[in-house]
Amino acid sequence: MKKMNYSRQREAILESLHNRYDHPTAEVLYNDIRKEFPNISLGTVYRNLALLSDNGMILKLNCGDGVEHFDGNVEPHIHFICKDCGDVLDIKMDNFDFINTLASSAFDGEILGNFTYFYGFCKKCVDKRKNEC
Fold this sequence. Notes:
Number of domains: 2
Low-confidence stretches: none
CATH class of the largest domain: Mainly Alpha
Number of strands: 5
CATH superfamily of the largest domain: Winged helix-like DNA-binding domain superfamily/Winged helix DNA-binding domain
Mean pLDDT: 92
CATH architecture of the largest domain: Orthogonal Bundle
Largest sheet: 3 strands, mixed
Strand order of the largest sheet: 4-3-5
Distance between the termini: 52 Å
Helix content: 25-40%
Structural class: alpha+beta
């Protein structure tokens, strides 16, 4: 864990992530934060995202599209990635601890947690495909 002094810019980045559910990239966050801090650099956004991630305050997601996405929700939850539009969405499930239990029964080590991604087509893309037929 790295030491963090207070920064208005970092606080704005963290607040932005806490108020959105679209799992943005650094560039998307940069464009949003520039509205409040016009002189902020993309490098500053990247450095702050890395610091927040290293300190467990946000999640850094690798969604298979070649760019990192970020999530302000650090509670255990599952992600869905649409293979058509690329949206990254949260799947709300009451309890999915059984995944760790199931994996532990097939593994001799100690499982502490998991990152789970489901892939397919989101409702918006499914509806769009139906309308195109």
